[in-house]
Structure formats: C-alpha cells, structure tokens
C-alpha cells in the first residue's frame, strides 16, 4: 500500500500534560483511517508508559479495556475503523509540538477568527495546503538515532504483535532538530501497516479540541456553503486546488473525534485507580447518597405524574360518554386540539427524558441533539405557562374594563357595520342601479339573521364576566395557547351568522355564474364533457336555444345585485378568517419556537457547529487563517505543495481544527419549516380561488403542531415505572 500523506489528529488537551521524570514515552490510543493513498491517525488519548505498567498486569487486561471501548462505539465507526493502540511517541516530540504551537497565544487568535468568520454557512470547509518540505522518499531510517526498543514489559510484545499483524506508528524528534526548522525532518514516523513498513512523504499535524458533552462537538453541517469575501485576489494555486477532485471523506474522522472522549475515558480511569483508593472510598459513599436522593425524587415525581395521568384519563372517558361530545368537539375544535396537545406533552415527559440509547453516551454530537430534544419539551411548556400566567393575571385584574370594551365592540360591529351595510346595499350603493326586489329580499334576510343572532348573544352577554374569568384561569393553568385557541373558537362562533349569510349568497352567486357560463356555451354550440374534461361540439335544438335565450337575460341582469352582496359578505368573512389565521400562526410560533436551543445558542455557541475550517499555525506562534481561501462545498479536501504568498516561507504543516457556528436563523428555521411547510401559499391560493369562484373557502391553516404525540393508552403501573425510570436516567453517573 502506497501512503503519500499522513495526517495526525492530535488533541490539544494532551499538549499540556505534566512532564514526568519516570516515563519518557507515551502510548497512543485512537483510530487508523486509510483512503486514497492517505492515512489519518486520530489520537484520542496519550498515557505514560509507566502508568500503564502499574495499572495493567498483563497485555490481555489492557486489550480487554481497549476492546470494550471499541464495542461501545457506534456501528458506523466500528465498520470504518477500530479503536486500538496506535503506537508510541517520546516526551521530546510532545514538548517540541507544544513549543511550536505557543498554546498561550492560540485561544486569542482562535477567538478572533471565530468572530471574524461567524455567520458563515454550514458545511463550509476552509482547507489549507500541506507542503512536503525537502524530505526525499528514499531516506534511511537507520541514520536517525531511534529508541525503538525503549518499551518495557508487555508493551514491547504488543508493539511486535501490532507490527506483525496490524498497524503501529512511532513519533519522535531527531536530536538537535526543532519543529521550527522543518516538521518533515523533525517527525519521524515508523509506520507499519499489515506487517509492512511504510514511508511517509508528507506529514501534517492537526490540533483539535476534544469534544465533551455540554461544551462542543464537530459537524460538517447540511446547508449549502457561501463563499467568504477575499481580502485580496486569490493566487492561481488556490484556483488549481479547488479544481482537483476531493478524496478525503471527513464523516468517519469527525465521528471518531466526537467519540474520542468516550473512548479514552475507560483507559484513563483504569490507569488512575491504582493511586486513588481513599478517594474512591469517599466517592462510593457520595454515590450512595446521590442514588438514594434520586430514588426518592423519582418515587415522588412518578406518583404525582401517575395521579395526574389517572385524572386526565377519567376526564376524557367521562367526556366521551356525553351526548354533546361530538358537537362540542366540532364547535371548539381549536380549544380541544390545544388541550389534547398539552395533555400529551404532560403525559409524554417520561418517554422524552428516558433516552437509553448507546449513541447518546458515546457520540457527543448525538448526545447534544438528544439533550436539546429533551429540553425542548419542558422549555416550551414553561414559556407557554409563563406567558399564560401574565395574560391570565391581566384579565383578572381588568375584568370590568374588558367587559365594557367587548360589549362596545360587539355593538359597533353589529350596528355600524352589519346593519348599516345591509341597509346601504338595499338602496343605491356607490351609484349602482340594482334590482330593487332582489336587493330588498337579500337585505331583509340578512337583517333578520343579524337581529336573531344579536338577541341570542344578548342573553350570553350576562355570562361575559364568567367567560373572561374562565379564559384567565385557562391561561394560568394550561398556558397562553389555550386562551388564544379559545379566542379563535369564540370569534368563529360569534360570527357564525356572517358565515352563514356568506354561504347562502355565495351559493346563489356561484349558481348564477355557472348558469351564465352554460348558456354561453349553448349559444356557441359547445357542451362540457365531464368525462374527458373538455368542450365538445353539440347540436342544440331550436327549443333549447329559445329557452336559453329567455333564461340568459334575467340571470345576467341579476348578477350585479347578487355580486354586491357577495362582495360585502366576502370582505367580512375574509377579515374574520385572517384574524383567526393570525391567531393560529401565533399559536404555532409559540409552540414551535426552540426556546432551549435559543438559550444554548446565546450561552454556548459551540454546541451548534455548521462546518469546519483549519487555522494554520506558523512557526511564529500566531494562528491565522488565509482570507483568500474560499469555502469548499465538498466533503473533503485536496492537498498540494505550496509556498506562502505573503511571507515567502514554506507553508506550515501544523494547523488547528475549528468550527463555524450556526446563525440564529439557521437554528430556528428548521423548526418553523416543519410546522408551516408551504402551508401559507396553498392556503392563500385556495382562499383566492374560493372567493373569485364563489366556492367554499378554507377557514383555518390546519397547522400540525411540532412535535405531535398520539394519545396514550398504557397501564397505570407501567406508566409509573416509566416515570420512575426516566427520573433515574437523569441522575449523574460517575
């Protein structure tokens, strides 16, 4: 196998290890990735040799720990590579790497680059080129003074077994050399793959921060990238670099980086148990107290949730046996759907919290997404209850004022708009000469319907105070979305007479339009074929033409009178529909806004990566980024030998892995897209077509809440066990 390039992914935390006088060598743990003539060595942990010899008695004990760590990894990572012992390196190599990188200056420059490139699109990967120095492929390893036989005990047997059957890499520095002179002449890789020694012409060290839960992880992102603005014209070698085909797939490498902390913990914890016996005695007592506390909390929360579960089931069963259940469900459908959703959210909390999948503990990226899903439910309920409490308190404190305003608004709508509008249409509206008899007929029907409905609402007005208090208490108990949903149902119920009058007049209007169109086709000798959906020629008789002529004139002359009433009631109905739609949109926004993600985005933006880029680390110790490099939409990168266009020196072979972070729009956009999903466009299209043609118009957006839960039907004992288990799953694990 020919390996032209080697990339060593080194954790930044391992650069600050304490220099121990006993152990001069470090054992490396991680993964090997080989593809397209390139080798990627992902280092997860570095453990001193003497510490391993004190902690493990035999090679089998060490291999058992490593094998158990590999079995816990995600299946896709196990198929790509195996977590194993990579090799060894000396302390001088680590010291030279730390001195080369000048770690005390990197965070400031890295923070500057994050601020400079914050807001770039996802999946944007800025790739730096790697030079090969002056090293010749046929150099002789024997000319370098190598300490290959420094490993003691079973570690030497492990290396011999790995060289014979697997892979082994050794990193060390030539005496008298420094990273600042040339990395390719400083780092000497004794690399064995499948029992054969491999020579490396290009070596590239990439520093990365080990992802940990609650802090950061790496991700390529899913959005199309945008190009960064270049501060000066790009050199020709950058354009040539972008034209080269990509051969590096970063998916497996980033998966290994996200799992590196979980893979290294068993080895490090096993190595640290030998010298901390007293601490573990204290820790065991502390763990017992913590577990007892969490068990008591689990019993209390599970019992309270089970009682609430029984109450909801009993209320739903009693309500379903009522004869008026279907009528109430249809009249108050928005309120019923909101209460159903809130009940499901309350009942499903143990299933949302109880995530026992292995991927959530191994992969930091999956753990962050699972945590966000857990926090999304309770944060949405908490914000909704907080806003509902504010609205309910305002209603309770201003009940009298709200009653006065409501009565005044109802009287204004009934007298100044409905009655005055109908009387105006019965005369000569805007100078139009209408059919007097038809206008009076439609006007009297409308006025009688308005009067009858006003009389009914006069008796309901005596209970207006209690209705407002009920809305206030529903907001305090169920949240803001409950009274808003009730507002929608009340508006639709209060304007039912307007809706019925619009339906009646639209039926007359649509029938007149269809009659005129049919008679016009009769005069043209055409007939509509419903089977083939087309117009066919047809020979009508003389009698049919005479009857059609007699009907065409009165129907055509009556259309203006019907159209005036239809336009008036269409405006009123459309206004009512848009008010209800705005309230529906407000409910959907309140329910689908990711409050937990927004809070985490403000506090810790590292949990929302949207692409990666590399910072070059020159020998001067200041990290910088090539502003002339444009973002790549590919899943990998191409490397070539280049010269630094600004400083005139060989380009560095040490770089730092960093992330672009998602913007606020990218964080919340996917949640809104799942709820609306082009619903607004289709609704406006149906509404416009229904108004112009006189057909039925939609009354709501029919938005699907996110997330939506089915109704739960499980046993009481089983539900209590789920609640208790979900609380215990949230307990801290040592």
TrEMBL record:
- Coiled coil where? none
| GO BP field | GPI anchor biosynthetic process
Q: Name one GO cellular component term.
A: membrane
TM region(s), chain numbering: 292-315, 376-397, 441-464, 471-494, 544-569, 575-596
Swiss-Prot/TrEMBL keywords? Membrane, Transmembrane, Transmembrane helix
Q: Tell me the PANTHER family matching this sequence.
A: N-ACETYLGLUCOSAMINYL TRANSFERASE COMPONENT FAMILY PROTEIN / GPI1 FAMILY PROTEIN, N-ACETYLGLUCOSAMINYL TRANSFERASE COMPONENT FAMILY PROTEIN _ GPI1 FAMILY PROTEIN
UniProt protein name: Phosphatidylinositol N-acetylglucosaminyltransferase subunit Q
Q: Which organism is the protein's source?
A: Panicum miliaceum
């Amino acid at each position: 196998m020919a390996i032209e390039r080697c990339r060593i992914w080194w954790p930044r935390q391992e650069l600050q290890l304490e220099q121990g006088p006993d152990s001069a060598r470090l054992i490396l743990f991680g993964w090997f990735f080989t593809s397209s003539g390139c080798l990627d060595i992902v280092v997860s942990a570095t453990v001193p040799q003497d510490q391993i010899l004190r902690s493990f008695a035999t090679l089998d004990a060490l291999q058992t720990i490593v094998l158990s760590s590999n079995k816990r990894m995600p299946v896709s990572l196990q198929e790509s590579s195996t977590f194993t012992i990579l090799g060894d390196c000396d302390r001088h190599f680590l010291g030279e790497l730390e001195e080369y990188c000048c770690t005390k200056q990197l965070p400031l420059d890295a923070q500057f680059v994050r601020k400079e490139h914050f807001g770039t699109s996802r999946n944007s990967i800025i790739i730096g080129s790697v030079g090969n120095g002056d090293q010749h492929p046929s150099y002789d390893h024997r000319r370098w003074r190598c300490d290959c036989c420094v490993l003691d005990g079973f570690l030497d047997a492990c290396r011999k077994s790995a060289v014979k059957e697997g892979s082994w890499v050794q990193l060390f520095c030539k005496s008298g050399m420094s990273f600042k002179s040339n990395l390719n002449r400083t780092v000497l890789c004794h690399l064995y793959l499948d029992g054969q020694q491999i020579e490396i012409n290009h070596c590239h060290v990439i520093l990365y921060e080990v992802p940990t839960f609650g802090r950061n992880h790496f991700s390529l992102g899913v959005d199309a990238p945008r190009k960064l603005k270049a501060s000066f014209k790009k050199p020709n070698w950058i354009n040539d670099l972008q034209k080269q085909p990509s051969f590096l797939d970063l998916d497996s490498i980033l998966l290994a980086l996200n799992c590196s902390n979980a893979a290294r913990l068993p080895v490090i914890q096993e190595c640290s148990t030998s010298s901390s016996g007293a601490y573990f005695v204290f820790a065991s007592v502390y763990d017992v107290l913590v577990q007892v506390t969490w068990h008591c909390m689990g019993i209390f929360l599970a019992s309270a949730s089970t009682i609430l579960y029984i109450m909801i089931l009993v209320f739903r069963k009693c309500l379903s046996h009522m004869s008026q259940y279907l009528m109430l469900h249809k009249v108050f459908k928005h309120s019923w759907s909101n209460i159903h959703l809130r009940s499901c959210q309350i009942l499903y909390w143990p299933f949302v919290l109880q995530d026992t999948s292995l991927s959530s503990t191994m992969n930091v990226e999956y753990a962050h997404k699972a945590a966000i899903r857990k926090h999304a439910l309770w944060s949405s309920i908490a914000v909704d209850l907080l806003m509902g409490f504010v609205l309910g308190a305002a209603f309770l404190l201003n009940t009298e004022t709200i009653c006065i305003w409501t009565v005044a608004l109802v009287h204004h709508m009934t007298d100044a708009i409905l009655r005055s509008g109908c009387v105006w249409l019965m005369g000569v509206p805007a100078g139009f000469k209408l059919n007097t008899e038809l206008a009076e007929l439609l006007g009297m029907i409308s006025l009688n319907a308005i009067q009858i409905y006003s009389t009914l609402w006069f008796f309901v007005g005596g209970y207006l105070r209690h209705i407002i208090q009920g809305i206030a208490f529903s907001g305090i108990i169920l949240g803001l979305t409950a009274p808003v949903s009730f507002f929608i149902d009340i508006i639709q119920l209060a304007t039912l007479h307007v809706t019925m009058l619009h339906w009646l007049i639209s039926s007359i209007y649509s029938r007149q339009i269809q009659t005129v169109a049919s008679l016009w086709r009769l005069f043209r000798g055409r007939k509509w074929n419903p089977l083939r959906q087309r117009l066919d020629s047809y020979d009508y008789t003389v009698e049919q033409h005479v009857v059609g002529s007699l009907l065409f004139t009165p129907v055509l002359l009556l259309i203006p009178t019907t159209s005036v009433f239809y336009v008036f009631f269409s405006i009123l109905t459309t206004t009512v529909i848009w008010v209800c739609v705005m309230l529906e949109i407000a409910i959907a926004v309140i329910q689908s806004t990711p409050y937990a993600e927004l809070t985490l985005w403000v506090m810790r933006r590292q949990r929302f990566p949207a692409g990666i880029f590399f910072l070059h680390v020159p020998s001067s110790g200041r990290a910088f980024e090539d502003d002339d490099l444009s973002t790549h939409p590919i899943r990998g990168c191409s490397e070539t030998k280049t010269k630094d266009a600004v400083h005139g020196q060989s380009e560095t072979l040490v770089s730092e892995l960093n992330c672009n972070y998602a913007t606020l729009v990218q964080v919340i956009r996917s949640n809104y897209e799942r709820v609306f999903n082009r619903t607004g466009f289709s609704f406006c299209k149906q509404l416009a077509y229904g108004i112009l043609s006189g057909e039925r118009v939609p009354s709501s957006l029919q938005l699907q809440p996110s997330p939506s839960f089915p109704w739960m039907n499980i046993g009481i004992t089983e539900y209590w066990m789920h609640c208790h288990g979900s609380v215990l799953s949230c307990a801290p694990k040592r």
